[in-house]
């Protein structure tokens, strides 16, 4: 998962970033491989936007470099004076294992669960 924060400083810049984000999102969905979904959160009071993208695996994130519209759009926030920060968040394990140190297997929810018959055999 990638989370990018856009601190726009004004609603006008925020609207510009939302329009840009919407346009680029269509190209990313079409051209990037491994994208599971995109969610945009907006705080109008602080003129801040969070873009959250969920990817099938870490290698898929690199396919963003194959989307010319995204490559070009990366330069826009700085030219508008919009401050950004971004972070990569990876799967840490089954929730029971992470929260309670349970011996649960680390199964990512991004992949199908094994069939019931396969679980009984294994």
From TrEMBL:
It comes from Nonomuraea africana. This is DUF3291 domain-containing protein. Residues 102-116 have a biased composition (Low complexity). The lineage of its organism: Bacteria, Bacillati, Actinomycetota, Actinomycetes, Streptosporangiales. Residues 102-122 are annotated as: Disordered.
């Amino acid at each position: 998962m990638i989370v990018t924060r856009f601190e726009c400083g004004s609603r006008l810049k925020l609207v510009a970033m939302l329009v840009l984000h919407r346009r680029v999102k269509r190209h990313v969905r079409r051209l990037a491989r491994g994208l599971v979904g995109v969610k945009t959160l907006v705080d109008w009071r602080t003129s801040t936007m969070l873009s959250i993208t969920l990817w099938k695996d870490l290698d898929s994130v690199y396919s963003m470099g194959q989307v010319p519209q995204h490559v070009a759009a990366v330069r826009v926030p700085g030219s508008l004076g919009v401050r950004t920060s971004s972070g990569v968040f990876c799967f840490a394990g089954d929730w029971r294992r992470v929260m309670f140190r349970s011996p649960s297997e680390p199964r990512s929810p991004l992949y199908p669960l094994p069939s019931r018959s396969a679980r009984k055999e294994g």
